[in-house]
Amino acid sequence: MRILHVLSSLNIGGAERFVIDLAVEQQSNLHQIGIVSMGKDEEPLQVEINTRGFSLHITSNIIELIKIIRCYDVVNVHSSYCLLRVLLASFFSRSKIVYTRHNERVHVSNKWKFIYKLAHIRLTKMIFVAEKARVNYLKHYPHFSSKSVTVLNGVLPITKQKTASLKCRLSIVGRFVPLKAQHILIEAISNISNSSNIMLSFFGVGELMENNKQLCKTLIPSVEVTFHGMEPNRDIIFQQIDVLIVTSETEGLSLAILEAMASATPIIASNVGGNPELVKDGFNGFLYEFADSLELAEHIETLIADETLCKIFGERSFECYESRFSMGRCAAEYLTIYQKNY
After folding, report:
1. CA–CA separation, 85 vs 92, rounded Å?
2. CB neighbourhood size of 209 (10 A)
3. Cα dihedral sign, 70-55-255-61
4. How far apart are CA 298 and CA 275, in angstroms?
5. pLDDT, tens digit, for every residue of 94-117?
6. Structural domain boundaries, residue 27
7. The model's pTM
8. Residues 134 and 176 in one domain
């Protein structure tokens, strides 16, 4: 089968990483893979895509999209930014069009009502990465019920080995944008009376990175903090993480959490979006109410004080990953959707 994945960019983000993992699994099953990026040339993940041998097209031009889409059996859109262009181009092809929504926010403006009218005509399926996101969407667009399906994300295996450290390494993996709310972790650390055995690290770049650096200097000047910037190798990232912290205001099905599960890393996450579908409070990690830095601080102190609990949470996360969130399982569900005649 010839499968085309469409992304808004090749910057490092959850949807982008998921698409590459999915494409790798699909390619291993002898499918022909193409990727369209509507971003710029020479973005961070372009090297990996070229290395994998996928056909790469960098364009947002509708005429070019028509020519590209005609060469594929299935076109899987992974960004709302790309949806309208692909829908318009698809009217000139016989390809199946599938749209994966990677977040839980629902567009309700007149512009989006128009786009979703086109989508209802042209889409084969709209895939949601969390059941809560599907339910929220159908409250606004109930006529999509028969076209909607939930497929939980998967990730490729990640090393479970950790490098040695005398301190507990708390980390956030994600872009420095408002919805990721990294400042909440910094505020939480400032509420911990004894933070001498804590190391804090951030993986990612973005518009709010400098703001968070300054906040660290102001609120937690005695804590060892590292801003690693952009690191594409997930093995390198999770070898340096003892506890993953997720402070997001909203999430679909967090790829960072899935990667933590695949690397047997315990998790403390905000109780939003699809996070409760991955983190079972008190079983493989902790959940806290978004922006409640005091509750987050309490959970951090609990894990720092109990290495056995950390290990148990990590092992349970890995078991859950193996049974529910492997990329093999995820790719098989996508293939069923691609092949089915609706």
Report:
1. 12
2. 17
3. negative
4. 19
5. 999 999 999 888 999 999 999 999
6. 2-154+326-339
7. 0.83
8. no
